[in-house]
Amino acid sequence: MTVDQVRVMVVDDHPMWREAVSRDLAEAGLDVVATAGDGEEAVRRARASSPQVVVLDLNLPSLPGVEVCRQVVAYDPSVRVLVLSASGEHADVLEAVKSGATGYLVKSAGREELLDAVRRTAVGDPVFTPGLAGLVLGEFRRLAAEPAPAASPAVPQLTARETEVLRLVAKGLSYRQIADRLVLSHRTVQNHVQNTLGKLQLHNRVELVRYAIEQGLDDE
């Protein structure tokens, strides 16, 4: 995937900030397909414009950002959401991830950090402001320790390579780091992850990490 193929939507209730972010993304060669200033408008435009990445503020009128995230991802699970928020509060981060966000940056991030985050989010890498990734993994481990609400179906058979990739995903490594560790191409790692998601009937990397931790793969 080349940079100019990445379709991005920017959602923020502050017009100047929304325009500045959109301009930075467009000048870097990304395709800004839509913008929105409130939650309900964001859901409508996301469905109409089919972005690959939604850069989303949490504090929105009419519909909270986490609910926008939940609805957008439920409508199209292939859409990735990168939260860009003024808040670095742990509760906000965890709520965003549980609603389906792939990553979370605070607004103090620099222009290049944002551009890199959008590009990485587009290929499925989880991107977090430094210090927040550990918090999210810790929450996954806590959730995995809770009793399952119902009996799980038989576990599909993964190949040795898929299991190896899944183990590294559970440890919090990005796709690029996994590719370097296993001497594979970035595309090959993506394919293994997509195949694993299909076999396990999961929808995104958030669910995949939780599954891997429930299986104890992060401790191996």
Describe how the helices and strands are arranged.
Layout (H helix, E strand, L loop, with lengths): L6 E5 L3 H13 L3 E6 L2 H11 L3 E4 L8 H11 L4 E6 L4 H9 L4 E4 L4 H12 L9 H14 L14 H11 L4 H8 L3 H15 L4 H10 L6
Parallel strand pairs: 1-2, 1-3, 3-4, 4-5
CATH class of the largest domain: Alpha Beta
SSE run: EHEHEHEHEHHHHHH
The number of E-state strands comes to 5
What percentage of residues falls in helices of 4 or more residues?
Answer: 40-55%
CATH-defined architecture of the largest domain? 3-Layer(aba) Sandwich
User: End-to-end span in angstroms?
Assistant: 32 Å
Quickly give the structural class. alpha/beta
| Largest sheet: number of strands, sense, barrel closure | 5 strands, parallel
Shape: globular
Radius of gyration: 17 Å
CATH fourth-tier homologous superfamily of the largest domain = Response regulator
CATH topology of the largest domain: Rossmann fold
| SS field, number of helical segments | 10
Integer average pLDDT: 84
The proportion of residues in beta strands is: 5-15%
Pfam family, one: GerE
InterPro entries: CheY-like_superfamily (IPR011006), NreC/VraR/RcsB-like_REC (IPR058245), Sig_transdc_resp-reg_C-effctor (IPR016032), Sig_transdc_resp-reg_receiver (IPR001789), Tscrpt_reg_LuxR_C (IPR000792), WalR-like (IPR039420)
Modified residues (4-aspartylphosphate): 57
Keywords: DNA-binding, Phosphoprotein
